[in-house]
Amino acid sequence: MKYILLFSLLLCAPLVQAQERHTTTTTSTTKRSETNDNHRNSRWTESADGNELSVTIRGDVRFNDDYTDVVSVADGSFFGIKEKRDGTARQIEISRQGNGDLQRRYTVQGGAREYDGEARSQLTRMLAAALRNGFDIEARARRLLRERGAGAVLNEATQARSDYAKKVWLTTLTEADNLDSDLQRRLMNLVATQMSSDYERAEVLIRTARFNYGEKALRSAFTEVIEKMTSDYERGRVLKSLLKQRKDQPELLLLAVKSAAIFSSDYEKAQLLIQTSKTSPTDATLRSALVDAAQTINSDYERGRVLAVLFDKRERN
């Protein structure tokens, strides 16, 4: 009788449910990074409050270790950095001459200036500003991980100003081999306390599938991040992705079910519980948690969808 009643609810419920949409927040700062297929030609720009900074690279351009100067430009390659700041436009272009020497050109308000100490100082300052806001960040993160290790990458993420920059440092960190439990927890705590964008948080968490979620302290840190996120869409995206990648971790399955309790969107909650029930092995504790979570769904239609999957799986087993 319960089974017949359940499907009656499904048939009588509305066929279309409103789905929470992912939205982005517009700020006064915009960034764009465009790179071609071989990663040798790129243009990076940033603008905010009427000021603008851009970096253009064509071909093979190399910087010194602290990114304060360009040290080599291959034949046919080019480096340019341009800034409009407080009403003043400055531009530096560096290319290679026929004899192999670097040719440096410095202009202020369109007028040529001698490339002297002031020009070198302006290049260092403009590069520092670009670096703070994400210029060449992917390449720098990979190089830092390779040369100085995971701890150095995590320190850079801590100092980064934007959520985008933090995301790049941290997603690179997740690629490290044998990332120990302490660094995993520190990464998770940074996402919880120093990032505010749910989208950027989700991008980092999705990359943590290799982490040891069997460890209670890490699960606690992960839960803190999920609870601070406000977008059910992004929460669901994270949990469904991790479930798909790590269905062998029962602790993670149970964590996903318990996390569903804080969802306000019945649709997103149902989607998560359905995937969990399809992914999970036959486990009485998990099945009981799934039934309890399903009862928190207000929509009869969405609750029915979840229970239908659960009962169908029970009967097949």
Q: What is the 3D shape?
A: elongated
Record field, number of beta strands: 9
Name the poorly predicted regions: 1-39
**Tally of contiguous helical segments:** 13
Structural class: alpha+beta
How large, in whole angstroms, is the Cα Rg?
A: 26 Å
H and E order: HEEEEEEEEEHHHHHHHHHHHH
Largest sheet: 7 strands, antiparallel
Widest sheet: strand ordering: 1-2-3-6-7-8-9
Strand content: 15-25%
Mean pLDDT figure: 84
Helix content: 40-55%
Q: Tell me the span between the first and last alpha carbons.
A: 20 Å
What does this structure look like?
The protein is an alpha+beta fold. Among the domains are: 33-132, no CATH class; 136-230. The chain has helices spanning 2-12, 117-132, 137-148, 150-159, 163-173, 181-194, 198-206, 216-228, 232-245, 250-259, 266-279, 284-294, 300-316; strands at 29-35, 42-48, 51-58, 61-63, 70-73, 78-85, 88-96, 102-108, 111-113. It has a seven-stranded antiparallel beta sheet with strand order 1-2-3-6-7-8-9, with helices on one face. Mean pLDDT is 84; it is low at 1-39.
Could you name the key traits of this structure?
317 residues, alpha+beta, two-stranded antiparallel sheet, 51% helix, disordered N terminus
SSE blueprint and pairings:
Blueprint: H1 2-12, E1 29-35, E2 42-48, E3 51-58, E4 61-63, E5 70-73, E6 78-85, E7 88-96, E8 102-108, E9 111-113, H2 117-132, H3 137-148, H4 150-159, H5 163-173, H6 181-194, H7 198-206, H8 216-228, H9 232-245, H10 250-259, H11 266-279, H12 284-294, H13 300-316
Helix pairs in contact: 1-13, 3-4, 3-5, 4-5, 4-6, 5-7, 6-8, 7-9, 8-10, 9-11, 10-12, 11-12, 11-13, 12-13
